[in-house]
């Protein structure tokens, strides 16, 4: 299916075929795709060259003209516009200029530059530059993207220059991706772009990919490659589920024993330099890195390097030698967490930390006589969800004191921990997640939806359609509630994923989630998506 | 799970711990694995070094001793024994010596050779050579492996030399793989092997992997890498499903238009040189290449480069412009097939060609008035299975005239084509395949089982266990019938497979099939298999 010829189908699906500049093709989202007029004789020139049939995710608003411009790789430039508040000192833009130039003209294509274009091509006008204008005085060049960052951009491609306007650099990065998707190479090695105008912005502010580096260690290269793929799909959050029961690859500065003893091996870790590299590589692509340090459950690996942290389990009044979740009743636990999260808050610049809180198994707590006594003293009776909430609230307070916002898995909300109103609840349980979204937003909390997008659950065939069909706001609730859904995440848990299969397993399946979270709500046509996704996959490869 | 420490678990699972030379550990297959004696104090030396816990597929008979020998990469040699009928002119062995030396000592390990071994290691005796003896006067060095080839070998590893005896080179290749699996590196970079004796042979003669290069083109590199993986798992047949409806990448010498017009593109083809390389690369690993040219269905791509070959479909008495299966009523069809299969018979040296014959859709034949008339004339009434059989029997006769044996998919048998008794029927339909095995072998035909091993059907979790649990002879039939099951195949159809995901999708899942087809029937312990497979996967990586 990869080898399919593209484009002609697109011609027949709704473009107005008048060869004039910027004749509107009508707004694409929601516009019915009817039968086209018969193509005029000169149509061969642009067959296979309909740009919007390879855009992914589809922009909010676009129009394109059949009129094409040529790009000469040796002359074409990506430049800062004179009126821009960003200049050559702006690292994210400088890096993106180099990167997108390479995507458009680099690799195997370079060989072909020697060839003379066909005469027909030579008659086309040339696009000489893409000028980038950053409009905000605070460009973002030297800071990190955050939940409130602007990713909107406006792109016009007309002779002789294309202009990309964005409020902040983050929008410019999205626009550069789109521009690179518009540029295509014809069969003769000419680089072409159709005159176009695009006005674009994300539907949801939080568009995440969860990677799990505990079940299997992921080499740095795999993580960085995934950040590239995320940028191709306009994702903006790497949810780094960095540690879990199975291993603790995060090398802590204060507590190096955690990875010394809890990692699979001494070289399967993320050093402080590795973490900095991931964060900076992500920043240059407009991607936030939200680390998850999941407690009190999912912490077996923590216990190896931090004695006394986990709850000793008992059987018939005797310690079994096994350990359960983090011990919520000792002050030493909170002393450790205070210091640990101080480090995490400083190492990870993002305004949010994910604190986990999912799947806490109460059986070990129930077995432990000290815990039982503590429960009595606190008046928790036998409601261990209260103990869990007691623990979580302590952790939330600690992390709040470092001025960090918090994400938590849905159980923390379900078990009625008293959450600060700016806590973000991540909904992951597949069963009846619409109802959970109603509850979470009904209580006034922001929500991130992950439940329908557990991409580690593989199945035969084109399951991307299942992910694509999800409508995140399809739940009972007021307009105010709907606004509290700030986005979603595609999760690739690591039980059966490592460097050998991560990329082909995640992409392009996650692209379906990417478009759902970026594009307009009414972009739902599966056949259209299939055509564009096929083309997008080729480009990603 | 990849990072798991291996070995100690193995120590606790049934080895006799007396440190003497070749003290029997009892035959492994079927031997109950009880609790072991407490380890003597010197056990640290061999912890993590129990060779049989990483062997895959498990040999038919083995015993190992805790006594270890060292190998010095700078001195150790793989050599022809003085008494061998093969010598330095034997390409498969020479190539395998180089290859297995590299597997054992090569890659990242080379760096470590500078290190001095620990004193404890220095006390171990050295294994200086592996001597290979080929016993048959016809070694196989200059021929191709075939269904009747001997793959048996006998391996003894004792100070000062290891001896590998095999009747033909094909057995020696299997023994070299096993020897390389016995050699392991300890934590200090020393190469060690336990004194051992292994007597081994395959349970089934036909152990295949089906690759589909039509739904997606597979680059040469992917095919060759798969041949390496097949050798690691003692597979011996590449079933090359080379063309199908979607594309015709085989570049024919007589009919170059078939790929000129039927391939996805002019560079997504297998040239005669490519095909020769696949065949020779496979031969050097003891692997047969059985090409499949599936007709009369699955042939849409043939029609592009060979006008008049396919049946024109009709609607209301008019040709629709679409085509169905190969046209079985015209002499030109058989003229073409005679010439085509003459080429195929000469290009592919294997004694068998797979002729397909599956999933023939009768609707186009039914629509065609010429076909209807032909049916009447032949007295087929409206039984299109008879027309199918008429076609297939013509093809079988053509191919027989070139002295080639034939494999066919089960429908050819089901639809009662008159088959020569040496035809091999491949059973692929998942529904009630045991019954089909009874019928096929009951009629006196050989069978290859593929039905339970369609590895393109993916699902979440450890589905290798499902493939591993299959017992091919679990059907009603006499001993004679059971003997007619000559083997099986793991099939990776290409609808959702290409170079980006083939290797991690096929391996190590196909390894489960590899052990089922090679090892003794009673090798069925899943926990034991899990441990060995984990280790084997690491080694393959």
From TrEMBL, chains A, B:
> Which gene carries the instructions for this protein?
Hexb
> What are the entry keywords?
Cytoplasmic vesicle, Disulfide bond, Glycoprotein, Glycosidase, Hydrolase, Lipid metabolism, Lysosome, Signal
User: Where can this protein be found?
Assistant: Cytoplasmic vesicle, Secretory vesicle, Cortical granule; Lysosome
Stretches assigned to the Beta-hexosaminidase eukaryotic type N-terminal domain: 55-182
Q: Where does this chain mainly localize?
A: cytoplasm
Q: How does this chain assemble?
A: There are 3 forms of beta-hexosaminidase: hexosaminidase A is a heterodimer composed of one subunit alpha and one subunit beta (chain A and B); hexosaminidase B is a homodimer of two beta subunits (two chains A and B); hexosaminidase S is a homodimer of two alpha subunits. The composition of the dimer (isozyme A versus isozyme S) has a significant effect on the substrate specificity of the alpha subunit active site.
Highest classification ranks of the organism: Eukaryota, Metazoa, Chordata, Craniata, Vertebrata
Q: Name one Pfam family in it.
A: Glycohydro_20b2
What family is this protein classified in? Belongs to the glycosyl hydrolase 20 family.
Domain of life assignment: Eukaryota
Q: What is this protein called?
A: Beta-hexosaminidase subunit beta
What's the source species for this entry? Sakesphorus luctuosus
